[in-house]
Structure formats: structure tokens, C-alpha cells
Amino acid sequence: MNWSAISYDWNQVRAFLATVEEGSLSAAARALGLTQPTLGRQVTALEDALGVTLFERAGRSLQLTRAGRDLLDHVRAMGDAASRISLAASGQSQAVEGQVRVTASDAMSAYILPEALLRLREVAPLIEIEIIAADDIRDLLRREADIAIRHVRPEQPDLIARLVGMMKGRFYAAPAYLDRRGRPADRADLAGHDWIGLSDNARYRAFLAGIGIELTERNFRCGSSSGIVAWEMAQAGLGIAVMSEAVAAKTPGIEPVLPEMDPIEFPVWLTTHRELHTSRRIRIVFDLLAEFLAEAA
Q1: For residue 144, is pLDDT > 60?
Q2: Which of 1.10.3880.10, 3.30.420.40, 1.10.10.10, 3.30.1330.10 would CATH assign to domain 3-92?
């Protein structure tokens, strides 16, 4: 290797890549835990070292130059390699301490996982858990999280997934709402009720139509992309919401709608990276969550 040809350092490359992916110097600085002037100096130092201009400054926005676009694929490859090095090192760690980041939906994070963390504290009190409450698919390959709990199976070949169970859900509403609007006698009656919307009402309506519940957009008079907020709306008497039986069982003042109807079943997948699965602390958290969620399902 021609070492003398490498005139930049990884921090400069990381600053450039973070700026591209986060969209601005300020956002990149927050993501890397740096001040904006420090990050800006690193990007400028990379430009000086390479002898090219990577960004064009147009007011407050940044646009990649042609040279920046030409370098981007190579820089992303470097970032992926750096992530793999970190993954390999983490996978070899056998210490039963340190941080493990778990991502799950906000409703599961708030209503189900705290009990699992109490059990984990008894088994491995030195493990630090950070819960990332998000409904989007977090990128395990880039270490945004170590373990993900999702209702869809991941497709990336570098990830391993375990189906830990099938959770059951039902439709629920506040007794005050049902006293006011009437209790549905069958699925056809549900079309005359208010529903709590989700982030994608069209997809939600298509799912409901598949089980014989025909609704229109008019049925969704309020809603939220947050499962917690939607659940609070239902408890306040704003309409009917879907929720897992496990959460509903812990919620006083909520009533199942059409309780004789078969529950809705949805899979629970526990996912991590193949190399991380050899880390003792990741394995402990993964196995404990698998056991806990299987019991909760």
C-alpha cells in the first residue's frame, strides 16, 4: 500500500459522510457529538487534503459538487467497513456489562418492555439498556440499534431473526364512548363508529377490509403515528383503536369491541446482527427478550 498517498484521516471522512447523510453541518455535528465549527473544520481539512471542493454553499444549504458525488460511494464503503470493524470487535466482547440498544415500537417500549428490563436487571445488573422507541425499521447494520423487535421479518442476509411468538390484538374503546355511541353488534356496525387513525390509514383500511370491516376515511376523525398517543385517544373516548391484548390487560377503563370476534394475530420477530450475536451481553439480552416476549404472546 502507498501510505504516503493517504493524506487525510478517518475523522475528516466521517465528518463528510455524516454531513451528506444528515443533510447539514448542524445535524451532522449533533449526530457525531461535535460542535458545528469543529465538524466544519474537518470537512474543510478533507477538501484541502484531497485538493477538491466537496460542497457548494448556497445560502444555508449545502450541495454536493461533482467531485463530492464521485467520492461518495467510496466514502460510504469506508463507513460500512468501519461499521463492520466495530461489529467484529463488539462480537468478540464477552464482558457481561456495557450498553445494549433495543429498538421497538413506542407502545411496546412503554407498556411491555419495562417489565422485561426489571427481569434483566436481576440477571445482569451491569448491562445498560437504551430503548429506542421507533416504528420505523432501524438499520442494525449501521449500529443504530443492537436488537430490534419488529412485526416483519428482516430480509438482510447479515441479520439473524427469531420468531418468538404471535401476539394477539383486539379492537378497544372507552366504556364512555360505547355508552354514547352504542356497542357494535357485528362487523357491519363498525362502519358507523369513529376510529383512531394510524400513520398509514390507507394500509390500515385495507387490512380491516381483509377481515370484513369496510371503513372510509370519514371514520378516521383523529389519529396519530404514535401508538401511545393513539391509545390515549381511545381511553379518552375519541373512538375505537387496535391494541395488543397484553397492553389492554394492563389498562383500566378500556373495553373490548366485539369480544366474541377472533383476535388479530401478528408475529413478533427478534433481530440482531450475526456478529453481535456472539457477544455475551447481546446474547443475554436477546435470549431474555425472546423468553419474555414468548411468555407475553
Answers
A1: yes
A2: 1.10.10.10
